């Protein structure tokens, strides 16, 4: 991390210290839950990409530590769409279409547990595109699917509840620090729902953001669980105070702060767990009309518009030292 008073980050001189090469489109990644920079052995993360096994990467050296290869009933390699470690870091959950596979991280290779087993009717349909666990509730995990459902499971795989309410396929789940609340967001869905896992099926609150495409927009909670920050398709970031009582008519919580973070679509926000710093990412696919390319190439196809002034693919850091109530943030 650069120091916030350095001009290096503002001038675009901030460079990555290590790169991990994946050979295809990356679906998901997750940090080892006990990760501590002071202990290099714990500094690793899992990543999955199309047509590849799940790889465990060393965050210090960039070397591959292990790989976990999910094979289907035809003995074909099948890449998961989502990943999550159990709170103790002993298991790795992998989301597929209508089922999960669970790996013991101490046993790399092909061996895994399929949930449900082949021949058993799935409890949840669609592609499992989001997974979440919480240390506050060991043995409980949540699955979000493209069929717009959020399901709670308890080890070794029994379903506790199935919740419906998202307008689009679920692409993100995140537990509150206390473990009693679960937040969900979907693709092409402007609503983030807050669920009480003690009363499954009841939406406690709804936060609205600007979403216009199927691109994933990843929100985040502050370590204390009071604020939720979400990106918007317009390039803005919205802040919601979760202690604000929701409206009695529609259970909606209005945002308490908003600012323009990027010229292009803002797709991810991530809060540092140790210091008041927010990271944001921008970028999306830009398509030019086929008619515009027809005159220049007889074999023209849809292509990325490199000349659009709003095209931006950038990682930015924001200082959150300014009080949230002021609705003003200083960008570095």
From TrEMBL:
Alphabetized Gene3D superfamilies for the sequence: YVTN repeat-like/Quinoprotein amine dehydrogenase
Pfam families linked: WD40
Example of a GO cellular component annotation carried by this entry: Cajal body
Source organism superkingdom: Eukaryota
One MF term in the entry's GO annotations: RNA binding
Single Gene Ontology BP annotation: Cajal body organization
Family designation: Belongs to the TCAB1 family.
The protein's name: WD repeat-containing protein 79
Lineage of origin: Eukaryota, Metazoa, Spiralia, Lophotrochozoa, Platyhelminthes
């Amino acid at each position: 991390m650069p120091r916030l008073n350095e001009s290096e980050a503002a001038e675009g001189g901030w460079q990555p210290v290590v790169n991990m090469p994946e050979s295809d489109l990356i679906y998901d990644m997750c940090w080892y839950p006990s990760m501590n920079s002071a202990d290099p052995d714990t500094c690793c993360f899992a990543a999955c990409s199309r047509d590849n096994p799940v790889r465990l990467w060393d965050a210090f050296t960039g070397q591959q530590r292990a790989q976990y290869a999910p094979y289907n009933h035809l003995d074909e390699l099948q890449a998961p769409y989502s990943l999550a470690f159990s709170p103790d870091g002993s298991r790795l959950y992998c989301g597929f279409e209508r089922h999960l596979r669970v790996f013991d991280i101490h046993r790399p290779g092909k061996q895994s547990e399929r949930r449900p087993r082949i021949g058993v009717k799935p409890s949840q349909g669609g592609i499992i595109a989001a997974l979440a666990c919480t240390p506050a509730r060991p043995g409980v995990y949540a699955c979000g699917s493209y069929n717009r459902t959020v399901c709670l499971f308890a080890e070794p795989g029994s379903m506790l509840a199935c919740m419906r309410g998202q307008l689009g396929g679920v692409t993100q789940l995140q537990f509150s620090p206390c473990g009693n609340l679960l937040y969900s967001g979907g693709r092409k869905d402007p609503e983030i729902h807050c669920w009480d896992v003690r009363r499954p099926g009841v939406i406690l609150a709804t936060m609205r953001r600007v979403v216009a495409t199927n691109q994933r927009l990843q929100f985040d909670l502050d370590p204390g669980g009071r604020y939720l920050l979400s990106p918007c398709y317009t390039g803005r970031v919205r802040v919601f105070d979760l202690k604000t009582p929701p409206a009695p008519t529609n259970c909606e919580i209005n945002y308490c702060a908003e600012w323009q973070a990027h010229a292009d679509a803002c797709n991810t926000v991530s809060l540092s767990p140790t210091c008041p710093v927010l990271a944001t990412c921008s970028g999306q696919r830009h398509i030019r009309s086929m008619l515009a390319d027809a005159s220049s190439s007889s074999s023209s196809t849809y292509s990325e518009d490199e000349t659009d002034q709003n095209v931006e693919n950038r990682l930015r850091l924001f200082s959150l030292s300014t009080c949230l109530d002021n609705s003003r943030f200083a960008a570095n």
